[in-house]
């Protein structure tokens, strides 16, 4: 069963993502911000992280950099779900090594298709 970390400061979106992943049979942990994500990432092995870009305390970019510098986390898929749709934000995220970038508002079925694509590419079942 794949494990997913959802990092999102908006409670409504965070809860919706948590329910969507749970409904699809995934183990889900949630973090309200990047600082909480650091704590979870340092104690639990996740297959995938879905993160917002702009959050208080620690941004999604900082969380992505934290993952990418740790060889023990190199296996993780990363999907950004953000309202930041400027080309430079999308390019920065892809340069850091994210697998997918989805602009809010998004359609749940599109997110699930992208999650399944990342799982397939990473060999996660």
What key attributes describe this structure?
single chain, 125 residues, alpha/beta, Rossmann fold, 5 strands, globular
Describe the protein's architecture and organization.
- The chain has five helices and five strands.
- The chain is an alpha/beta fold and 125 residues long.
- The protein has a single domain (3-116), classed as Response regulator (Rossmann fold, 3-Layer(aba) Sandwich), CATH 3.40.50.
- Strands 2-1-3-4-5 form a five-stranded parallel sheet, sandwiched between helices.
- The longest helix is centred in the last third of the chain and has 15 residues, at 108-122.
- The radius of gyration is 13 Å and the shape is globular.
CATH superfamily: Response regulator
Number of domains: 1
Count of β-strands: 5
Helix count?
A: 5
Short description:
This protein has helices at 11-23, 34-41, 60-68, 87-96, 108-122; strands at residues 3-7, 27-31, 48-51, 77-82, 100-103. It has 125 residues and is an alpha/beta fold.
Question: Could you outline the blueprint of secondary structure elements for this entry?
Answer:
Blueprint: E1 3-7, H1 11-23, E2 27-31, H2 34-41, E3 48-51, H3 60-68, E4 77-82, H4 87-96, E5 100-103, H5 108-122
Parallel strand pairs: 1-2, 1-3, 3-4, 4-5
Helix pairs in contact: 2-3
């Amino acid at each position: 069963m794949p494990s997913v970390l959802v990092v999102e400061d908006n409670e409504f979106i965070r809860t919706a993502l948590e329910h969507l992943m749970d409904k699809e049979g995934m183990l889900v942990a949630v973090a309200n911000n990047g600082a909480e994500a650091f704590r979870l990432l340092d104690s639990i092995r996740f297959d995938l992280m879905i993160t917002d870009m702009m959050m208080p305390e620690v941004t999604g970019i900082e969380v992505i950099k934290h993952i990418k510098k740790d060889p023990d986390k190199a296996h993780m898929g990363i999907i950004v779900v953000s309202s930041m749709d400027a080309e430079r934000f999308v390019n920065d995220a892809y340069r850091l090594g994210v697998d997918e970038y989805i602009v809010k508002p998004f359609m749940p079925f599109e997110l699930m298709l992208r999650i399944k694509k990342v799982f397939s590419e990473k060999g996660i079942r």
